[in-house]
Amino acid sequence: MPVTDVQHDLDSRTLTITADFAAPVARIWQVYADPRQLEKVWGPPTYPATVVDHDLTPGGRVTYFMTGPEGDKHAGYWQIKTVDEPTSFTFVDGFADLDFNPNPELPVSENAYAFTEHEGGTRATYVSTFASAEALQTVLDMGVIEGASSAINQIDELIGS
């Protein structure tokens, strides 16, 4: 399994996931840069994602929805802040309604994804920072650690194909 470490810190309002992949940095970058690859790994296995819009450039937006086993749909968006291809990007991640309007009732996070060479492959570091400890606790209670870890762990199968 690629995920090697998961840390959450209510004081700093952060969730950090570390994963190691047996593939070059440029290959891991492609998983996020290509919407068809991204939708294979963004949602957990039981909630596959469909990427609707994908503009991975500063100021760009990525919109998606995940479909649950009962056919229920859950939408979200990324508002891209910075891109340093192929090593990192930052974005705001939020929940949305099915028209991709932000849902102010649910937490928003600032995210920094970084990809570095590590032992012949890539180490990916995913850091999400929330506005408050309560916001972080809300997503922890929603199962974000299990969901994000199972989603990231799907990358191995994708890059192996």
If you had to describe this structure to a student in words, what would you say it looks like?
Belongs to the AHA1 family. This is SRPBCC domain-containing protein. It comes from Rhodococcus zopfii. With 161 residues, the protein is of the alpha+beta class. The protein has one domain: Alpha-D-Glucose-1,6-Bisphosphate, Chain A, domain 4 (2-Layer Sandwich). The chain contains five helices and eight strands, in the order ββααββββββααα. The protein has helices at residues 25-33, 35-41, 133-141, 144-152, 155-160, and strands spanning 3-9, 14-21, 49-54, 61-67, 73-84, 88-96, 109-118, 121-130. The protein has an eight-stranded antiparallel beta sheet. The longest helix has 9 residues, at 25-33. The protein is globular. The two termini are 16 Å apart. The model has no long low-confidence stretch (mean pLDDT 96).
CATH topology: Alpha-D-Glucose-1,6-Bisphosphate, Chain A, domain 4
Q: What is the fourth-level CATH superfamily?
A: START domain
What's the gyration radius in Å?
Answer: 15 Å
Q: If helices are DSSP runs of H or I spanning 4 or more residues, what is the number of helices?
A: 5
Report the end-to-end length measured between terminal Cα atoms: 16 Å
Shape: globular
Structural classification: alpha+beta
The CATH first-level class comes to: Alpha Beta
Note the beta-strand portion: 35-45%
How are the strands ordered across the major sheet? 1-2-8-7-6-5-4-3
